[in-house]
Amino acid sequence: MGKFVDEHLIGLRVNGTKGEGKELRKKYEVRGFPTVLFLNGNGDEIDRIFGYSGNKEATFETIQDYAQGKNTLVSYQAKIAQDPDNIELNFKLAQKHSSRWEAEQAKLYFEKVLKLDPADSKGFKTESVFNLNVYKARYKQNVEPLQNFMDKNTDEKYFETGYSNLLRCYSKAKDQDKVVATYEAAVNKMASNHNIFNAYAWFIYEEKLAHKYDRGIELAKKAVKLKPDAAHIWDTLAWLQFEKGNKKAAIKAMKKAVEIAPEVKGYNKNLEKMEQSDS
To answer: What are the extents of the domains in the chain?
Structure first.
């Protein structure tokens, strides 16, 4: 990847939190980091990559495409100007804007996809409906359409985004019962996702839901089984055991967190606190 970038692009790393970087961040409306902007010789944006998916091959493929002007936001905009009712182009633009956190623009294209293709001949209906439901939940405080979608959905591609948005909305509304119900639905469907198990367990600890400490411990144990090298999950398990009164089990779990990440001072302090309380 590095060789291709050196040969085809001029790279410049900018700190978007200070100096000229703050001005560039404002100019190009950069919403978070890391963001890779692809600009032409005039400084106009061709497209961008926001975040990192963890898939090196896919990222490299995108960089190669953008370097050649393929599959970019600008190329799609040029094509749709010539063919505004092209269903596939509308869907691609919806996805582009959605990936760039440009919700209003994405919404317009997803709506147009549904209007142009009511029979779903292209197979874009489900994803369009899902994204419109996420939009309603996030920006219009209308959670019901997304909740109904997730209740019926069995396609794992929608699990993480769908449940994270429901949790965000219910947490913002301070609806603890709905948060718990959503976590329960999520862990039932996402049985191999250590992050959701740990998130639910930590929620139980943070909210001090004493009647659910056993459930939290069960979840944290499942999470560390899935990801045994994750110190933060052992930390979650330790605090739940501590709150439950299982001090020896808490100390054992916190020692594991320290063993995995000895450089994290917080884990060492936590262990010291737990050992003092057990003396």
So the answer is: 1-70, 193-279
